[in-house]
Fold each of these.
Amino acid sequence: MSELTKRVPKQHIVGFIGSIVLTVLAAWTAVGSNLPVPWIITAIMVLAVIQAFIQLFMFMHMTETDSGKIQAGNMLYGFFIAVVIVAGSIWTMSFGYTHDHGGNSDTEQHEEHMDH
Amino acid sequence: MSAHTDTNTGPLEYRSKEGRMNILGFWIFLGAEVVLFSTLFATYAVLFGRTADAPAPSELFEMPMVLIMTFLLLTSSFTCGIAIHHMRRGSLKGLVVWLIVTLALGLGFLGFEIYEFVHYAHEGASLPSSAFWSAFFVLTGTHGLHVLLGISWAVLILIQLRQRGLTPVTSRKVFVVGLYWHFLDVIWIFIFTSVYLIGMVV
């Protein structure tokens, strides 16, 4: 692999610049764009996943050596379980949430429901 | 790919069977860490908005602060990669210098995080303030403890490097602590996005 002998680690620099761009883009999408909230959440989560893959492939060299496939499979399995736990928890708890608060899930509710 | 399977010319950390198995084993540990953090993310997501009498996250989260912490950790992940690159070129000095830069950035991140927590506590948001803030401090605090552990671990590896130099064993240890460090940034990307950015938007 030519990466070994190069003086300048091109892959790392590309990954670093990519990460900065994705971070700034996500921050701007959150506070600078006027997109509807569900769109913002979807967009920044997609940006986060792309950035995580940059770390795994360009910085951590997840797929190098003959164990690469096992390593990648193991991490994908970990992320799959993570998505199931997070999405499953939100889905399960969403029922009681609507019932308790009459569908009012905005951040001001602590002022309106001080007695909770 | 093939260069890494060559036990004579590939990177030092892959030259022994033991070294390769250790690295594979560490990847399996990282998979379990992803799941550990997912339970904390799930708790946080479920308790989002349950701030009771304490301030809402949108009142306390500040973009400049969060961006500084993110860039500190992101840059440290990059410099850690540069350290590994120097190690693979056989440069002990380059490795040590970049590893120290990495740790300095990591300490900077921790400093900001401690400042942030103290600031929130002054504003009336601490661990016992509400369900939301409990979930917030446990999630970000667990990540912060991982960073502290990573720094301490890397310092011990630096001492070993000084005593033993670059050998297949020490390179494997550096590579593994490097993986751990990059992984902390992976978790932070999701904290940055789903805790701070969403906390500022919703």
Amino acid sequence: MHLHKYEKYWLGAGIVGLIVFLIILGFGAFYLGTHPQSHGEIIDPENIEANDAFKPENRGLTKVDEGRYVLNIVASAFNYDLGTDESGAPIKNIEIPAGSKVLVQATTPDVIHGLNFAGTNINMMVEPGYVSTMEVELNNPGEYTLVCNEYCGVGHHLMYGSLEVVE
Amino acid sequence: MVTKNQKHVNTNPESEPNLKGTLISVSILGAILLVTWIGALMLFLLR
Amino acid sequence: MATPANVVEKFSSKVFHNYGTVELSLSKRERRLIMSYMYVAMISLLVGGLMGLLQVLARSGEFELPWGINYYTILTVHGVILALVMTSFFIIGFQNALMGKTIGFSKKQLNWAWVGFWIMLIGTVIAAVTILIGKANVLYTFYAPLKAHPLFYIGITLVVVGSWVTAAVNFRQFYLWKKAHPNEKSPLLAFMVIINMLMWCIATIGVATSMLIEIIPWSLGYKNTINVLLSRTLFWYFGHPLVYFWLLPAYMAWYAIIPKVIGGKIFSDSLARFSFILFLFFSIPVGLHHQLTEPGLDSTWKFIQVILTFMVVIPSLMTAFSMFATFEITGRKKGYGGLFGWLKHLPWKDVRFLAPFVGMLAFIPGGAGGIINASYQINTMVHNTIWVPGHFHLTAATTVVLTFFGIAYWLIPHLTGRKLTDAVNRLGIYQTILWGVGMTIMSTAMHIQGLAGAPRRSNFSDYGGTEQAAEWGAYQMAQAVGGTILFFAILLMIFIFIKMIFFSPKGEQEFPIAQEEDHAEPTPKWTENWKLWIAITLVLILFAYTVPIMDVIQNAPPGSAPFDWPIGS
């Protein structure tokens, strides 16, 4: 099979380019540790409270150390449970100081959901039977909308909350 | 006869056609792929 | 100088004789079969397009859907009827035309092809009815544990089974042809059809397995729970090759039909075949790149499939080169020199060329976006945002669809014994421009909005009144403008179809099939080492999927019961 000289250049450059892309991605993933969410922990979807993180009192934001937080979320059709405030009302908005490290843990008792703080790199699938987790450093102040981005039923677009990263 | 001969030479597998325009075109395509990818990577890293 | 006879003798053990592609004429019965596929595709286009219009209007927040119709019913119809029905009917019809034109159907083969058609049509009708009565608001990906009416799944399974019958007919045609022509290379277009059907059959095993052993028994109540992640993994094992099943017929036209339309020859028969072989290898073992942000799947295997996904870029790079080279060589032969002078010769006023060409242009941003989507951790930035439908409205809904329209402009008159008239050609050019403009507006808005975080497959919502949601709203208006233009483009296309079928003057419209150069390099025999190609494909699949699937089964959480209340039924 004959290849034109220029086609050899083109395919050569293309293949080298793709390899360079892969090396950059691989370096970011396996050396710097920025993987997409791939947590493997399982949970009984009909008994999520068996896992401490998803007991009603542990839902929402908890400060564990200076600049370190855990955010436990239960996604269900059609609501994000971010815990309750002192008066018992459901929390919809969360505030975190800029520069904090946050471990987000989420699961669902029903169907598949998406969990995305729009505009951040916190974006993961939430599936029955699994705990999804992601740890990120929030450096850019601003308001980020929490949206369900995987179709979960007719009220899918009514699942939301917000995250404020404050100076 | 002459035209037939000429046609024969032009399409001989041994002689490569002139594909300079093609090389430039695919280079532009390659540059677009490179720039968009780097742009996406940068945006990802800034978030 | 070597005469062709000498060349053949010299390499006879390693290369094929080249007798040129023989063109048969399509019989009346073959034409009727192919037209039946085209009718279903056209009706699907109209219905799906109308759903698209309602969707963009509803999501703009300015309009409410009439008669209490649910947004997600419309979204399900849009996805199923366009992504699954319109594409597969057009593709199988077109591929049957290519098989009829290059190899031909026996009477018995044609009868079986009709069986395939009817099974697909019955499946389509069953699925469509369940969706329209609101019992299947699960979108075209039907992710468990959302549960639709069992007939929805049965209908879709029948569509797949019908396509298998046609695939079996195509394989049989090809096998008999090869037996009768032992030292000849198969016709290029038939070769491509067989590659696409092989890929389709191997890929659909995934979704069929999931349907038959998991989803259908579970939806009927014979099984209490379902392994959600397994069903998703099997779905995406099928879902990525599905997009190549759409794309390859467009590539068939680019490699082997467009050269004839522009008055040129095939750039390289061997390279075209080689790129299709690579598509067979690398289209399937890559489905995990749709599941990069999912729990329960190991990150190493995700990365391995990302590497395999990058491999599938290579045959598209080859295709890009071949297209430019075809244009340049043809232009230079016509006397248009210079670096870009050859662009001037291209038949810009011939819609059979212009529509696929605009499709090719769309594949530049489409391909660029695709590489970004597949880029492991970068995928997190765009996953399930509206960037993703923005991306596939470039690749599928522009590259593929405009190429299909470009085919229809000559195929439909050819089948109905009429001519492509100047008036229809002109309308087609307007249609192409309208499509290009509408899609540019809509897709650009979707890409930007996606980068800003807006979710895909969602009805209008102000998300509690955040500033971000207000910002998305502006782009949703742009989407509505683009989508409305596209709807008018679809109406124009339907008008063109009707004109071509019923009102154009009788005549014989050419079925353009490009030939190789008289002294083109002979095609090596290894290109048709089918057993090896299938073996490599299966080995790659086993390599990429064995461990992840074993993992999903062995480390499975308690299964999920069916949920039908979230979809409103």
Amino acid sequence: MEAATLTATGIRKSYRGRTVLDVDRLELAPGRTLALLGPSGSGKSTLLSILGLLERADEGTVELDGRAVTHRDRDARMVMAAAFQRPYLFKGTVGENVAYGLKLRGVGGAAASTRVAAALERVGLGGWEANSALTLSGGEAQRVALARALVLEPRVLLLDEPLASLDPLLKWRLTREFARILGETGTTTFYVTHDQDEAQVIADDVAVMNTGRIIAHGRVEDVFGLPADEWTAAFLGMEPALSGVVAESEDGVARVDCDGIDVYAVSGVPVGAEVLVAVRPEDVTLFEARALLPPSSARNRIEGVVVELTHSGATYRVVVEAGRVRMAARVSRQAVADLSLETGVGVTAVFKATAVRVAARGVPGGV
Amino acid sequence: MEIFADALRDGIAAFSQGTIDVWGIVWTSLQTSGTAVFFSLFLGIPAGFFLGTRRFIGRRLLITIANTGMGLPPVAVGLIVAMTLSRRGPLGDLDLLYTRPAMVIAQVIIALPIVAAVTAAAVGAVPREVRLQARSLGASRIHEAILTLAEARLGLVAAVAAGFGQIISEVGAVTMVGGNLEGSTRVMTTAIVQFTRMGKYGPALALSAVLLGLIFLVNVLLAAGQHSADRFERT
């Protein structure tokens, strides 16, 4: 079935006088997966419910392929399907659960059985039709929930934190599987999550939401590469983008002067342009101060001082300051020990010119 | 123990010789109680579904009223229905007092709050997200309601069992509005009271045995339904 375009415009929603959603515009491009990232309570699930025509907005329009649709439009709802954080499987067998939506569409008998079997096969549960749905493990149940949506061959698939309640190992396995399945089906997908790593694996596009508003929207590499503002930077574990001026440009590499610190970036921005630059923490490697480094493709070598060191799961987040320039690096526990990293210690931050995202000021997304 | 032996002998005789129309009484009971159960479920399940799933002003009050109704004294119901249907009552023109419909009305009033309250509790325990999930797969409001009731089917079996049990074993209200008229409104419970008062323990014991057997049979059927619903319960 042809992938759909879903657009939300001017969506407003309030609960008891408090505005929980205020979205000017959000578009799901046909056949692409848009991940909506944001902290808990930011309005992500409410937006999903409105986009999926499960809930009414106080104001605004949802358009499916350019046609305005509402929650009363059952034809529109019939081309969508959703799975949620808790896979609410109905009492009965796995097969009955997966066939539920087909039954509502008048598909029964052998046709339904074939499609159910294929959907279960796709999520790695081939032959599980007769198992009781309520005795499954969390991961199995989540796959059944996905199969129950996929079996309908929806034109729009809505997934609301489908992996959030799983243990990390299973979550990563299913993240990769979901990414593969969504890639194969080519369905327009809206994927709500608060996990940016998951979003990067699953999605083509990403939108970041806070307190009911979309504050960044674009391709994954753009949104993650260059935070739109301070809040987004903090949410993505980065430092805010640096301001600078392109001082020189040669062979596609621009030298950006950021308050006296030179940052090299692969960019076509003309000399003299005022730009924002940013680099992902995982692209920055730290060495001892004034270390003699062998020649490499890493063009940027910035001497700075550690001003923040925070434990973040299996890694550390280190903020390095050089003049007025601040950047974050993500390093291993071993690197912290080897470099004796602590606040006030001098380091050399090294990163490639290709790792630097550049945008003309006022223009979101990289250039 | 002789009194029981004599009663048992008399009871068997009453059945075998047809001196008392035991089966007519049983049939009247089944007809009135069956009709009352049907209307209690027909009205009580939708009412309970509404109370259990919708959010509206006054919902808590209505649930409290339904819960209070579970403890309605049958004689009080019998009194109100008798007064309402009496010649001077507001529905006196219908001329229903001492008829089977009057008994059905009283039984429905007694059982309705039980069915509604138990249904409300059962469907209220089904997470709202189940309905949202069904809606997201294309379900209409009717489909959502059917699915919710199916998810709450263990509770619904309990609602049916509680409603039926209350209706079939009730005696006070049906006596007051039915009058225990032989061949017309005499049901098992009123007949048992009548025979006991007359010292005819045999037929009273025989009818009690049939009544108990009937309740047992219905509960066996409900238990089978419950077992079938139980197969897919969360473990």
Amino acid sequence: MSLTEQQIRTAVLEELGNVAPDAELDGLDPSEDLRDALDIDSMDHLNLMIALHKRLGIEIPERDYPKLLTVDAAVAYLLARAG
Amino acid sequence: MADILMPSLGADMESGRLAEWLIKPGDSVAHGDVIAVVETQKGAIEIEAFDSGRVASLEIAEGEEVPVGTVIARLGAPGEATAAAPASAPSAPPPAAPAPAPSAPAPTPVAAPSPAPAGPRRRVSPAARRLAETLGVDLAGVEGRGPQGAVVSSDVRRAAETTRAAAPAATQQPARRRGLDLEEMRKAIAAAMARSKREIPHYYLATRVDLQAASDWLARRNAERPPEARLLISVLFLKATALALRDHGAFNGTYEEGAFRPGSGVHVGSAVAIRGGGLIAPAIHEVDHLDLDALMAKLRDLVERVRRGGLRSSELTDPTITVSSLGERGVESLFGVIYPPQVALLGFGRVSDQVVALDGAPAVRPTVELSLAADHRVTDGHRGGLFLRRIADLLQEPEQL
């Protein structure tokens, strides 16, 4: 399965909405740190990693979590690994 | 017969609004069943039954706000044929129940209190509830498209637009009580914290804890596991705290009517920040008996319900101590204000690398600043110091937690 960037971006935004249903995603700057932009805490971020792993089937080792702290960075990371 | 009362869900709750009944006359309820949703300053809380029995009558209607301690429903004994209950004569319309039948000035047909079906509990995120209140949208008629059918803000907005399109003029209710929840929550925090600082003679202690062993152990353990089985370091903090409390019971309990009352178990209130402001610290029960995986699952579930709605009354009333843990972000140390009637609050600051002296030479190690705010009426600094030392020691052997 090869995923397009658009598919991955959609997945990231949808799962973000599930993890933080009380956050306002409209107008989110995709290059902003999610922890600052949406007050995403470590539990929220871990839940996002779980959801993306399940949905896309892409391995995300814990040491790489810091590479997925913005929407853009997460999309780039997942795209590179989607092969 | 037993009366069900509007519960007090915190030292400073004066009244609650009954948002939704999940029972009706004739239903059987058991201890711990969720029977109603009550709107409080802390958001919508699921109320659990204390006694078991058959519902004889509901004494207040959905939408009514009553003071704490008001009878909201009556229970008969499990087998008892309650006079008022329609259970035995299902054909007759519910005779006794005074208030609830015609749910106030039912604005739309969908608002009838029928939708308490056998199905799973409907989740409504706190933000959605707030927005619905602001926009004057009746949640009963809103289709939930969030995770697991939860009603989220966008559902409320869509419902509001639909309604407005249908009846352009009617819904122009002035945006009454805008931002209700957060404002109310701020008031609740203000009242509780002011009372705390007025009544509780706090003392504060802090110590730096080396986390090399804990971090290494956690990294190794998480590396071999899929994301859903990974642990956060705050779970180690919770467990170490709970185990230390077994030997330091004087920090686990409440101070009421001039005396310390030890907790019935180790029920750790875990502070969760709420987006947009505010904070809530619901209990995880019997933390000292949970293994790390179970504790992680409980914490995850708790955070999810803070975000999405569905906190239960026992979680708000049971904490015997509070732990506030900043994780990877924020400042290095925090000193808490005790939540009355509890007698202690532990603060774990941000985990950060620090230069420390190790065997006479400088070394860089992951550390956390651990603080204790405690009630001087119950304990003193010496004991507090031993308690903190015990937590620090437990964190040196993470595999034992």
